[in-house]
């Protein structure tokens, strides 16, 4: 079932001809029939990830392509009964400061919601999975959790309709602790959304390294995963303290040019 449902969403990133060495996300062809079939098999959610690179511009073409693709995917998914998870990711790659990330994210999110509206997407029926507003991973200027929260919440209030029921942030290469601290800081301020998380590397890294493929490490790995889950659950309530974190969980997970 997992293998079958893996193709509900995008088919991956490919070079965007005419851009500044940027990418676009393919997979719209045949999406209507796939989503209809997967709904019959029990699926109720779909996900589509597209990325924008700040060092590569981003070009107006890449931003428009990202926004239009997300909007068409969302409309097709809703038409077939699925809740679309809309994922416009601003990549961490680059030496830019947090103000530059904020500037680009405003532009990208504005186009995303413009095209969602143009395609008659029901905002109440989507989930937004964006990246947080942070400096580039190679920036000399680091930002505290409070600064990341301030910029990210400001962006949410400026660009995201309150009708959107939930926002699940991706970690995008932040360390496990950093991603949890930033989420916690965001939930210490009132906002009209449910601000949650949908992490991959920032939920799995310590768990996988603890396990290491060895049967005798399974219990320790399960405990590590439970600790991360509880930490982020507390961060959703603004009650995460950072106590008990390992050195491994504090290590940066950014990989330049990371793709999947």
From TrEMBL:
Keywords: Glycolysis, Lyase, Schiff base. Pathway: Carbohydrate degradation; glycolysis; D-glyceraldehyde 3-phosphate and glycerone phosphate from D-glucose: step 4/4. GO terms for biological process: glycolytic process. SUPFAM superfamilies: Aldolase. Its EC number is 4.1.2.13. It catalyses: beta-D-fructose 1,6-bisphosphate = D-glyceraldehyde 3-phosphate + dihydroxyacetone phosphate. It comes from the Eukaryota. One of its GO terms (molecular function) is fructose-bisphosphate aldolase activity. InterPro entries: Aldolase_I_AS, Aldolase_TIM, FBA_I. Pfam families: Glycolytic. Belongs to the class I fructose-bisphosphate aldolase family. NCBIfam families: FrucBisAld_I (NF033379). This is Fructose-bisphosphate aldolase. It comes from Lupinus albus (White lupine). The lineage of its organism: Eukaryota, Viridiplantae, Streptophyta, Embryophyta, Tracheophyta.
